[in-house]
Amino acid sequence: MEIVIYLYNGITALDAVGPYEVLSRLPNANVKFVGETKGIIVSDSHFLKLVADYEISEIEKADILLIPGSVIGFLRETRKNNVKDWIKKIHQTTQWTVSVCTGSIILASTGILKGLKASSHWAVIHLLKDYGAIPALERFVREDKIITSQGVSAGIDMSLYLASQIGGVEQAKAYQLMIEYFPQPPLSYRSMEETSEETKLLARKLTEVRVKKDLSMFEMAKNFQSILKLRKGK
Amino acid sequence: MEIVIYLYNGITALDAVGPYEVLSRLPNANVKFVGETKGIIVSDSHFLKLVADYEISEIEKADILLIPGSVIGFLRETRKNNVKDWIKKIHQTTQWTVSVCTGSIILASTGILKGLKASSHWAVIHLLKDYGAIPALERFVREDKIITSQGVSAGIDMSLYLASQIGGVEQAKAYQLMIEYFPQPPLSYRSMEETSEETKLLARKLTEVRVKKDLSMFEMAKNFQSILKLRKGK
User: Fold this and answer.
1) What is the DSSP-derived secondary structure letter of residue B121?
2) Nearest CA in chain A to B150
């Protein structure tokens, strides 16, 4: 079971690490962290760095391909033809192609999601329409072998579902027990529907802080003014 | 706000990355990933590698100290006097000292938890008693400035609580929205109480696979037979 997780600068680490923590427990799992080039990948906060042991030119196929999200980095990926061609090529070989958060925008930009329902992070899900996908704000959405999920932590739910499809419910329950995924969010605030406009506004403001940090640290601020505008929505 | 996350070989990555994803959003957060020595840290599965940008000799204080867990690596840490001395020293300076999963066993081994209630992963929580701590199988347990949490994913719940204590509930709600932490575990299996003996047995069997892989890849199998026995419980 070859599980390929694509890493790129600006990645939201939990988007990759949540699903990895579930899927790496599948029987005979071999998880490969793959970057455009090998080496250290800097996350969106710039505090956490992960290692890509492989580069895309070394990977020809996958049983599961996972594309994680990011706060702004995903828009850089949608402009890389070599990355998009690689995703399309690997997708031809997969049993499952899945994404977390804005990873679905990257998938959509390859044309894979044309005419299909797809989920993404609430703040940018409208961008899916630019690529002919149909935004569906659900925890995760399955279209045949493609599963797209909501933001960040939703990758854990999606991966448990995926694990149950691959190894059966009893295996998936054991993974859930191993990572003690019996969530008890402490703020008595349990759904998107309960979100006030104030909370949304604060979340957007805080996201912009992370976006600006990411842009400035990559010294790309000038080139990406257009992207910043895009990110703010229509 | 200096947030110090201790990394070590054998770490369960989600134990560190879950809380990081929440706490890195605190106002003026500066998150430092710190190893016994600097450089690449290999996780329990050996598939994922994280980077420790600092080493313990460079860190004198922290506002938040976080000790993540592992499947077997934690027992190696409990034998390192330099690491335990460092944890005790940093703990003197913290506003909060927190752990996820078996990180509480490391904390306990420093003497910090003596006489205090503490949580940990269900499979090894009995080990806390060896260090005079009182096992409490709760999602997370607060004792003044110390918070210990259950296994792996529980670090997300604990960190949201911690964020609410530091920055207030409205801030914490915004972080929750940013990472869309509105969990919907898909297996209709929502609490430890629902766990069958079969699921527990399978989880223990799968954990041993990971333990053995970790031990063999560190070529420490011989030295750590005693640890393997310890891990299996009393």
Assistant:
1) -
2) A180
